[in-house]
Design brief:
single chain; alpha+beta; Alpha-Beta Plaits; 2 domains; four-stranded antiparallel β-sheet; 10 strands
């Protein structure tokens, strides 16, 4: 049984959704060692593994979630950035700490069920985007999304070098705020969902596409 450590740092710094990529770039620019975990590329090639440092907007403010090795890497930022200031686009912004949450979570299946919410989930790739749009029955649409969600969870576990041997069950209980967005000029379908599952997952971890810039944030609902 393996526990995954996570660290979510919330700053008292307002951040718009569109500013998350700028926030990510500002943090990367503040790291002199160019640690690959902060940006997932080494200048010539991409690190295609699950991002262990994720830049987010939580409660309308800037936040970073670190997973596994990313927790240790984050110490470098705080060791060299003692005044907690970054350059966000053309502005200099302070990063006063608001809250720090450390967790250790066993990502595994249990006999009980957990209630979760995912904000700004991007479940659809080019192939299943067309299938989803051509499906008019709401039950069939939910079935498509549930299969994708199980796949996302398995990809997350694989990215964290964890093997889930038990069967993951998910049941989507609510879908809201479905909207079309563009990210890097690519049209995407974004949505918020609530679901129940037999697997335990850490708070604020990302799932699905573009998790490094704040999409697909999971939070556990209070049962």
């Amino acid at each position: 049984m393996t526990k995954i450590k996570t660290l979510t740092i919330q700053f008292d710094t307002p951040l718009r959704r569109s500013e998350i990529p700028l926030f990510r770039g500002a943090i990367i620019a503040a790291i002199p060692s160019s640690n690959i975990l902060f940006h997932n590329h080494d200048g010539s090639s991409l690190r295609y593994a699950y991002p262990l440092i994720q830049y987010k907007r939580i409660g309308g403010k800037a936040a970073i979630t670190c997973i596994g090795e990313g927790v240790d890497a984050m110490g470098e930022f705080f060791s060299i950035n003692k005044d907690y200031k970054i350059r966000l686009g053309e502005e200099t912004r302070n990063l006063p700490l608001q809250n720090i949450q450390a967790q250790q979570t066993e990502i595994q299946c249990w006999d009980c069920k957990f209630d979760y919410r995912i904000r700004d989930w991007l479940p659809l790739n080019e192939k299943n985007y067309n299938v989803f749009n051509e499906t008019t029955d709401i039950i069939d649409r939910i079935n498509i999304l549930e299969k994708i969600l199980v796949g996302n969870i398995l990809s997350l576990a694989k990215g964290l070098s964890m093997n889930i041997s038990s069967t993951i069950t998910v049941s989507i209980t609510d879908i809201e705020n479905i909207r079309d967005i563009r990210y890097k000029r690519v049209p995407l379908r974004c949505m918020d969902i609530r679901f129940r599952s037999n697997i335990s997952l850490p708070n604020f971890i990302g799932i699905g596409k573009h998790t490094s810039v704040g999409f697909g944030i999971i939070t556990k609902e209070k049962n």
